[in-house]
Design a protein that fits this description.
Length: 93
């Protein structure tokens, strides 16, 4: 019988990573909008927007790579190729 605990752990970690990224993204966007509401000059708004978009992009790329590696690890664990030792040997008659 196959032990599914490692698979479940990896799926839980992936779901947690997605949730953490969504929460962090929401909070960053909320903070950006709060700062944007207090800006008085268009050049300040443009600077703030540029900084926010750069940060959001860098965070997205980093989190995507991290979560992608988690999926890669999950699939290599969940769908291991059958090893020669675990397959019964066939006899030619």
């Amino acid at each position: 019988m196959t032990d599914l605990a490692p698979i479940q752990e990896k799926l839980t970690a992936i779901a947690t990573a997605h949730t953490d990224y969504a929460k962090a993204s929401f909070e960053a966007n909320k903070a950006y909008l709060e700062k944007l509401a207090t800006v008085k000059a268009p050049d300040q708004a443009l600077q703030l927007t540029t900084e926010h978009m750069k940060s959001a992009y860098e965070t997205f790329v980093a989190e995507s790579q991290k979560i992608g590696e988690m999926y890669k690890s999950f699939f290599t664990t969940a769908f291991k190729p059958m090893s020669a030792a675990s397959t019964p040997s066939l006899k030619v008659v």
